[in-house]
Write a structure and sequence with these properties.
Number of helices: 8
Number of strands: 10
Protein name: Energy-coupling factor ABC transporter ATP-binding protein
GO molecular function: ATP binding
Number of domains: 1
Strand content: 25-35%
Structural class: alpha/beta
Order of helices and strands: HEEEHEEHEHHHEHEHEE
Shape: globular
Bound molecules: adenosine-5'-triphosphate
Keywords: ATP-binding, Cell membrane, Membrane, Nucleotide-binding, Transport
InterPro entries: AAA+_ATPase, ABC_SmlMolc_Importer, ABC_transporter-like_ATP-bd, ABC_transpr_CbiO/EcfA_su, P-loop_NTPase
CATH architecture: 3-Layer(aba) Sandwich
Organism: Massilia pinisoli
CATH topology: Rossmann fold
């Protein structure tokens, strides 16, 4: 009995001892205030506050046309918007246009229909590392690990044009992962996938958070929305609800 009590106390102490570390890990990563996107006269959304914590996963839901993809593309620097203030990793990012280099390195957007170069799977995954000046031997090792992670090692030399939709999505995730993004923006990663292909993509997403990224996933997929530990954001009538 005393052993049980002792182990319970120990467990509680261990948990408390871990608490500051956990809090430390969940610091604010991205904080945006006053984010407005217009298409001509149409105000697509007007977001007061968007906050993303480190090492956290979010789903972004909303009706078709609510602006989910647009919001991810704005955060990824692929579209312009009006932004009153933006903090990233504790720093004020004053000049959002042009999109700051630090954000470009730290935030990676993965398109619903990834565009892959007509080279090989391995070259596609390593491309960003080559651009960032990694030595070929390092690129090879990182790409090999990423292909194993994504379950595409057997496709290393394949022309991406010959891949299925699920394989393409996994290659795109591996290509993003090797860049070790602080924030990963996934646009409907499981749309148009079913069966094993969908399950394989679903299984990769939590491991990206484990590896240190925060992830925001625009989706309608119930299984993604219900993944344990995932926080919910919803675009509704041009406003963002944190749920
Ligand atoms: N360049 C543009 N000019 C005008 N309107 C645009 C432009 N790009 C997107 N839109 C409109 O903005 C709205 C939001 O589009 P977006 O793709 O962000 O929505 P979504 O929530 O991702 O939708 P879905 O769930 O269908 O993918 C849509 O009504 C779309 O037609």
């Amino acid at each position: 009995m005393s052993i049980v009590i002792h182990s319970q106390i120990t467990a509680a102490v261990v948990e408390n001892a871990d608490a500051p570390q956990r809090d430390e890990r969940r610091k604010a990563l991205l904080g945006v205030r006053g984010l407005r996107k217009r298409h001509g006269d149409r105000l697509l959304f007007d977001i007061d506050v968007l906050e993303i914590a480190t090492h956290s996963a979010y789903v972004l839901t909303g009706m078709n046309g609510a602006g989910k993809s647009t919001l991810l593309r704005v955060l990824g620097g692929l579209e312009r918007a009006e932004i009153d203030s933006l903090r990233f990793a504790g720093e004020d990012v004053l000049r959002v246009h042009p999109y700051p280099r630090a954000l470009r390195r730290a935030i990676v957007y993965v398109h619903q229909h990834p565009i892959l170069f007509s080279t090989s799977v391995a070259d596609n995954i390593g491309y960003g590392l080559v651009v960032r000046g990694f030595a070929p031997i390092a690129v090879e090792a990182i790409v090999e690990e990423a292909m194993a992670w994504a379950g595409v090692a057997h496709l290393a030399d394949t022309d991406p044009a010959k891949l299925s939709g699920g394989e393409k999505q996994r290659v795109a995730l591996a290509r993003a992962r090797v860049l070790q993004p602080r924030l990963l923006l996934l646009d409907e990663p499981t749309a148009n996938l079913d069966g094993a292909a969908r399950e394989q993509v679903l299984a990769l997403i939590p491991t990206m958070v484990d590896a240190g990224s925060s992830v925001v996933i625009a989706c309608h997929d119930r299984d993604l929305i219900n993944l344990p530990g995932v926080q919910r954001l919803k675009l509704r009538d041009g406003h963002l609800e944190h749920r």
